[in-house]
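Write out this protein's structure.
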Amino acid sequence: MVNSMKRLKNILLVIPALLILVSCGEDFTILAPQSDRNVENFYRTDTDFVVAINGAYAGLASNDAYGRNYMLLNEMRSDNMDNGGGATGLAESLERITLFDELTTASELENTWAGGYAVIARTNTILSRLDEATLDDPALGDRIRGEALFIRSLVYYNLAVAFGNIPLQLEEVTSPSVTINQVSATEIYNQISDDLETAEGLLPASYSGSDIGRVTSGAAATLLGLVELTNGNSGAAEAALRRVVQSNQYELVPDFADIWGIGNENNIESIFEIQYKSGGAGVGSGFTEYYSPDNAISGGVGGGNAPQTPTDDLLAAYDAGDDRFIDGFGITSGGDDYLTKYDSNPTIAFDSDVNFIVFRYADVLLMLAEAVGESPEGWGLINEVRERSGLVDPAEGLGLPYNEVLLLERRREFAGENKRWPDLKRFGVAQQIMADFLSDEGVTESDVRLLYPIPQREIDASPGALTQNPL
């Protein structure tokens, strides 16, 4: 369907009209907005393009994306996390997410949609202007093109998982008369795959110095593997994930605890992290508060914000002696369980140095196990991850079906890493598992929405242009 969507067009026009960019200083992690630059007087030098792509990374770090909302839509939606912040005001909106009763006017949905398309617009502008520019360093131009394609793909993936059929915009929008296509999620995933195959060939395998944290070819291949699994293409997923393994760029950190903490960021297991920096410039993270109970956090300022409290069901999923439980959870002085992966000691609330890991090597191994299916290799990949966590019993001896074991190990490994709800959907068990989990709340399988509703303000701004998801 071809749609003319006033509100989305306004979003897409924001960046071409007035680009909000960031510093390109010596440190890549410094993402604070510095100035507004008119696009027509910009995109002339190598430095201009570096500044522009840094701005796209900043969009990923915002509360509209990995800074907050993706966490709510992918963890709180599942049986992993519950709303520990009460049931009034904002907390009521979060409670609705956990019960599949969210409103079409929920700010979490509105901001995820609008923020996502703002980042897409930013990357579209970069890609368009690269086509017209002659950079002093052509290799830099290739790298930035790869970065822009990856960032756009990552946002489209998250939007498609959340909303299903969404608008696909691949060009810079410079006129209000543009028409936008709402296309199927399958078409979105196909476009992402094409873009990531291009990006993988343009990106370096690694970085050094102040560029550490930028997107690599391994990150592109990892996202490609995930998208192909989501799109039902296990063979293509296997090929992409094997490239990551065979690159020899990554390995499991021997001790699970050493994945986490400010001193362990961007380690040998990490494939792509969202970079944050404290200091009061608005580019710190709030994960310490989000995952800490409201009666206490481990040092720092104030108490936790508590929208992400681990469920009893999650805690019961771990075996005795599992390092992922021992080193992944704690108990406050008030007796509350909480996830410790994002512990820090901030001096300003919601202003931590703690990064968010989007992809790490354990994910590659378990996705590869998913792609190859039940086989000696598949079981071996699962066991490689289990053994790092101190579990010596072979997974194939647990007496459970292969996919059930795989989903369980993913749950144990990636609690609090925005993977549980997409995993439940991809494995085809979301409605069954969530109905069982919420049976005491009267939730049935038919109540479990697989897609979030498109924000009502988007529907209202373009009558008849957007098809709403089932409510």
